[in-house]
Design a protein that fits this description.
Chain lengths: 296, 318
Amino acid sequence: MTARLPATASRTECPPTPAAPRSAPGQWARRGGLLCASVFLLLVGVAAAWPGLLSVHTPDVTDLSATLQGASPEHLLGTDRLGRDTLSRLIYGARISLLLGLTATGLGFLAGLVWGLTAGLSGRVVDEVAMRSADVFMSVPSMLMVLLVIAIFGAGERNAALAVAVGIAPGFARLVRGQTLVVKNTGYVAAAVSLGLPARAVILRHIVPNVLPPLFVYATMTLGQTIIVGASLSFLGLGPQPPTPEWGLMLAEARGYLQRAPLLGVYPGLAITLTVLSIATVGRALQLRFEGRDAR
Amino acid sequence: MNERTLSPQARWWIRRGLLGIVVVWGAATVTFIGMQLLPGDKATLIAGGGSLGGATPEVLAAITREYGLDRPLIAQYGDFLARLIHGDLGTSYQRGAPVAELIWSQLGSTVVLALGAAVLGFVLAVVLATSTAARPRGRAVTSTVELVLLSTPSAWVGILALTVFSFELRIFPAIGNDGIASLVLPWVTLALPIAAALAQVMRDGLERALEQPFATTVLSRGATHGRLRWRHLARHSLIPVLTLSGWSLAELLGGVVIVETVFARAGIGQLLVTAVTSRDFPVVAGVVILSAVVFVVVNVIVDALYRVVDPRLRETTP
């Protein structure tokens, strides 16, 4: 079975060819991109943590006398079909969209860690069963796996996060297992075992810490994708329910008013894309640093 | 090794076939477990629990008997697998029709959508990769565009396409299933992320091939750069594309769900979303099992294609 990791696509793009040394302007563009991405992520982070700091209006106050308005000093990005302030909804939406992605990635990370460690540290039979079942999970497109989980447990914010986590856990499991097999056979683990350390201590103190680093890079890459999947679920009406301010949901609500208020469909998508793009940019920088390819 | 009667080729095919069956069986088992995890009484679910007051105890008892819900789980699992082998995917809770029939009736429009998008994505990727490989300026621009495309939710691409081309310029219809015109925007929306990912790996493959001695040889024989790229390197750029085919397929099947919703097209994606929303589990399970079958078949084809594209693989035993 071929692996299908969205991250591979962007990963293969990186290796700098020896034939074309990076030019100074390229360097500056890269630096500038990284800076912009970091600043934007910081902004989104602030919006998610303290939305009240950034927004003037409350996100769910309706005003039926001022629906679908264009930009004005009062409503910088206009209002939606119920007269709610679009900018405020975008700002408040950051929390739910980010939280959905972060929770899903965190859960998938943990599940994959346990799954992969079990496979890598147990005997052949357990390993084989664990990895074949990962194959099975990965042979169903993750979007369908996510929908299957929602069909079982129902729509909603928490179930959406759980479903996305199920979709990404096998990818983590594979990575952890591969990494575990490498770490297991290193000299320091052999030394720890021969010193008589109990198995639990060897695993927690020597194996897990060395399995984790590449996982964080992968998690960063995955986070962007989980945010997209999360927002897509909300768009389908299977995530957080109205009137929650959430980017995917705002996109779905705008779908019916594209003719009268076309910009309503632009902002939430832009917010998702810029966030994911920024995460990818920062993630790639992390990856380069981790692989020691940042050497200028 | 000890079976001298079978050629390595035949053994390879048998092994691949068996692995495929294991994967489909696994997917079926996952859906069966999912079915057991459904909250609430199953007979009530089948009776369509939403109807006023629910079904009478007699009806529920009849359903329990008919579906064998009173039998041990392992027997139900056996039944489920046996029916699956005969192509019986069960009956929709909501519509009362066989799931296989429901899927079959929607399959055509989704296949047209997905296949068209796959071809479009592939062609776009070939053009992008071949024209920008090892050309720093073009590379910088397109790889940025590709990164942006991979970071954009399809739902948004679809909404932007609708806004611009259907509502502002009025070139394509906004919704519906009729004709090629209604397919253009869905095709493009579905194809863009695939084109972006494929172009990235293709360009990588091309650049690696360009560094190999044979590229210099071809040029020294008087071939133009264009000829080198299109005639001699294309094969090399196809290998990473094949490696990504599993990802592309998943992207396509997942994308279909979104694109059909954005453009209000009938198809498997719509069927699936409706089923998930109304907790019509057999339909969801049916689509999942079907997609696992498609995935396995495509993977076997891809593995066979590797040997066609890369003659080096044919010489060594599998």
